[in-house]
TrEMBL record:
Binding site for FAD: T166, G205
Quaternary structure, from the entry: Heteropentamer composed of five different subunits.
Pfam entry (one): Acyl-CoA_dh_M
GO cellular component, one term: peroxisome
Listed name of the protein: Acyl-coenzyme A oxidase
SUPFAM superfamilies documented for this protein: Acyl-CoA dehydrogenase C-terminal domain-like, Acyl-CoA dehydrogenase NM domain-like
Molecular function GO labels: acyl-CoA oxidase activity; FAD binding; fatty acid binding
An example Gene Ontology biological process: lipid homeostasis
Catalytic activity annotation: a 2,3-saturated acyl-CoA + O2 = a (2E)-enoyl-CoA + H2O2
Encoding gene (name): POX
Cofactor: FAD
Domain Acyl-CoA oxidase C-terminal: 495-673
Amino acid sequence: MIDSNECSSITFEGKEYDTFTEPPILMKQERAKTSFPTMEVTHFLNGGEKETAKFEAVKRQIEMSPVFDNSDYYDVNGDYKKCRERTMQKVAAIAEIVTDGRDEHEITSYLSAISIVDSQSYTRIGVHFGLFLSGVRSGGTPEQFNYWVEQGAAGLRNFFGCFCMTEMGHGSNVAGLETTATYDENTEEFVINTPSTAATKWWIGGLAHTATHGLVYARLLVKGKDYGVKQFVVPLRDRSNWNLLPGIGIGDIGKKLGRDGIDNGWVQFSNVRIPRLFMLMKYSRVSANGNVDNKAPAQLAYGALIGGRVTMVRDSYTWASRYLTIAIRYAAVRRQFAQGSTVETKLLDYTYHQRRLLPRLAYAYAMNAASRHLQSVYANTTQTLANTNPKNKAAMEAAVGEAKALFALSAGLKAFSTWGTLAMIDECRQACGGHGYSAYNGFIDWTAFAVQVTWEGDNNVLALSTGRALIGRHLEAKAGPVKDDQLGSGDISQPSVLIRGWNLVATKATEQATTQYKKLEKSGLEVDKIWEKLSQLRFKVARISTRNFLVKSFFEEVEKNASPAIKQVLTELATLFALWSIEEEASVFLEFKFITAEDLSQINLLVDEYCGKIREQAIGLTDSFNWSDYFINAPIGNYDGDVYRNYFRKITDRNPRSETHAPYFLSVMQPFFKRTFEDDPDLSSLEEEEREINEE
Ligand SMILES: Cc1cc2nc3c(=O)[nH]c(=O)nc-3n(C[C@H](O)[C@H](O)[C@H](O)COP(=O)(O)OP(=O)(O)OC[C@H]3O[C@@H](n4cnc5c(N)ncnc54)[C@H](O)[C@@H]3O)c2cc1C
C-alpha cells in the first residue's frame, strides 16, 4: 500500500505534479498569511473571551467522552436500527450533562457543539427539552410547570416528553388540527380522541420508542363548543415498563431521508382520559364546572416553537462554519490544472472558486451576528411575557406586541438562514469535487440539515407570515411615503452607504406591498383574498428585510465588539457580504433605483476585489471557527491540510483491505459469472480453418 512519501513528485511535459507531500506545507504557508489574531475573532464569534473559554470546555468534554467517539459515525448511520441505539446512548450522556445544574447559556453552548458532532442525539433530546418542556413552561402556569418538573421532566427521571402537534392531514395550519379534547364535567377530565386517520399525530420525534408523555395539541371542546387548539399533557406509556397505556396506539415512522437515530412515530388516541389540570392553562382556562376563559391570542400557545426557531438560526451558522472550513481548507491545498506555469493552480486561487466560497464565508459570519442579536431579543421578550400578568390588559397587549415582532423576526431568520446554509452545504460539497461525495467527508449530513427548512414551520409558510407581519405593521404605522435615495456619487464599499442602501430597499419593498394592499382594499376585495394576492410581495418583503437585518447586524456587531486587531478584516468581510447580497438582489436595487446598471457593473468588480482580499485571510477566518478535527470529522478538512494521507487512512481504516471478495461472492456473483450460456458461440468452423492453415 502506498502510504508514504515515496513517488510524491512527478514531472510530466515540463510540469510538476506533487500531490502527496505538498498539501500540509501549503496549509502552513496559507496559515502564515493570516494578518489578524485568529483567537480574537473566535472570541468575537462567541461573544467574548469568557464565552470562548466556556465553549471550549464543553467541546473538550464531548471530545473526550467515549460515548461520543465518532470515528464510525458515518458507517453506523447507514444502519438505522443500530443508529437509534447509539443515539439513545448519546442521549443518556447528554442528559447527565444538561441536568447537572449548569447555567442555561452553558447548556445552549454544549448542545450547539453536540449538533455538529451528532445532530440526531441533539434532536432526540431536543424534542424533550426544547419542545416538550419549553412548551410546558411557556403554555403552563408556574404551578403546572413545577408539577411536571417534580414528575421527573427536568431531570429525565423515568420521564421523556415529546411534542405532538403535527397530524397526517395538517402541519402548517395548526388551527386546522382535528384531534379533540372534550371536557367531561362529571369526572373533571378531558377525553382525547383521534377522529380520523388524517388526525393521527405524525412525525413525532421520540414517540416511537422513548416518550412517556406527549404535549398534545388538540381542539378544546366544552359543552359542545369548539374553543380552538390548546395544549394538553397526555401520558402515553406506563413508566414502570414502557408499555403503552390503554387507548394509546403508537407506531414507528421508519426510515427517513436523514436523522434516523430519532424514533419518529405516530399516535392515535381512543377515549384517553386525563385530569383537567393536564391542560396547560397559562393563557386559557377551563374551570371545574366547565367555564372557559379563552381571551389570550392563539399564537401564544405556539410559543414553544419560537425557541426552536431561534436555535435553528444559530444552527445555521454552526453548520455553515463546519462545512466552509472543510471546503476552504481543501481548496487551499487542492491543485487542478496548470495555467501556463509549471505547477497546477490551487482551487482557492481560481477567482470563480473564490466567488463560490468566500461570500458564503461572509454569510456565515453574518448569521452569527444576526443569531446573537435574535437571541437577545428572544431572551428579553420571553422575560417580558413571563413577568406579565395575563389579567393586566395593557401590559399583556404590549407583551403580545413584542411577541408578535419576535415571531416575525425569528420566522424570517429561521427561513432564510436554514435555506442559506442548506444551499451552502451543497455548494461546499460541490467545491470538494468527487471527494465531497464520500460519506467520510461529512457532506452526507446534508440530508440531516435539509429537514430544518421544513420542521417547526415550513420555510415558505414562515416567510409568507413574516412578510404579512411586516406589511401589517407598516399599514398600522400609517407612515408617509418613503423618500427616494440613490447611490449617486457615493462610495458603495462604505459600510454606512451599504447600510443606507439595504435599509432603503427593505423599506421600499414594504411600502410597495402596502400600496398594493390599499389598492386591493379599495377595489373591495376581502382581507384574506388581499393577502393571498400579495403572496409574492409578502415573500419579497420577508426576503429583503431579513437580508437587511443580516447586513445591519453584521456591521453593528463589528462596530460594537471587534477589537482594533480584527476590525479591518471583519469590516472587509461584512462589506463583501453586503456587496454580494446586492448582486443577489440586484433586481430590487435597480427597481427601487438605489443603483444604476453602471453601478451594478462596479459592484460586480468590487465583489471580485473583496473576494481577493478575503482569499488571503480565508484560512485564518475558518481557523477562527475553532473546530478541532474531531468536530470537523472529515479528513479532507483537517487542520494540517494533509488531505490525501488523512483521507486515504480514513478510508482504509473503515474499509479493511482484507475484504477483497464481496460477502455475496459465492451466493450471487460466482453463479452469475460462471453461468453457462445456451448460445455460447460455435467456434468449430474457425478451429477447422486454423487447423488447415497450420497443416499447410
Ligand atoms: C423529520 C421530521 C420530524 C418532525 N418532528 C415533529 C415533531 O416532533 N412534532 C411535530 O408536531 N411535528 C414534527 N414534524 C412535522 C413538521 O413540523 C411539519 O411537517 C412541518 O411543519 C410542515 O408541515 P406540513 O408537513 O403539514 O406541510 P404542509 O403545510 O402541508 O406544506 C406542504 C407544502 O405546501 C406549502 N404551503 C402550505 N401552506 C401554504 C400556504 N398558505 N401558502 C403557500 N404555500 C403553502 C408549503 O410551503 C410546503 O411546501 C416533523 C417533520 C419531519 C420531516
